[in-house]
Amino acid sequence: MSASALNEQTYYVPVRPAGAQPGEWRYGGAGNVNMTQQIVKCPKCEHAVIVPYYWDPRWATAPVNLHCKGCGWHKTLQATRDQDEVAEINKIIGTQNLYYSTLFEGNLLWARNRDIIMLYIDFIGGTHAAQPGNGSSNPLAHLPSWVLSADKKKMIRALEKLLELPKP
Fold first, then answer.
1. With bands split at pLDDT 50, 70 and 90, how would you rate the model's confidence at 137?
2. Residue 15 contacts residue 28 (beta carbons within 8 Å)
3. What is the pTM of this model?
4. Which of 6, 51, 92, 119 fits a 20 to 30 Å CA distance from 137?
5. Beta strands of 42-89 (E only): which ranges?
C-alpha cells in the first residue's frame, strides 16, 4: 500500500489549501490544517503568543520559549511533573487562556489557532463531509456536544468574530 493511500485511510481531517477561505476544503491528511502551534494570550498584555501545539510540561522532551511581540514578555517553560509547576504552566498555555476564545451562551468557545476556527466553521456550516471521529490528531474529535447542538448561524458568527482578532 502506498504512503498516500495509507494517509487517506488513516486521517479524516479536512485540509484547507493554502490561502483558502472557509468553505474551500478538501479531504486528506493533516496537511494545511495547522497542527503545530496554538495561540495563547500574553499574561501581561493579552497579545497573541505562539506555543507548540499540545506542548505538555509532563511529557515534553525539551523546554519551550515563549515571547510576546506586543510587550516583550518572555518565559521559558521547562518539562516537569511537579503538580504545582504544571498548574502554573497551564495558567499560561491551558485552554482557559487561548487567544481565540469567547463566551458563547455561557460556555467557553475556543480554538487553538485560526486554521482550526476555519475547520469548525466549515464543519458546522456543513460545507464538507468531515466526521468528528476520534483521535488526538483530529480537532473535530474534541468538539463538545453543546457546540454541535447550538444554533448553527449563531455559532458560525461567534467563530467568525474570533477570526477578526489580530493575527499573531
1. low
2. yes
3. 0.74
4. 92
5. 48-52, 64-67, 74-77
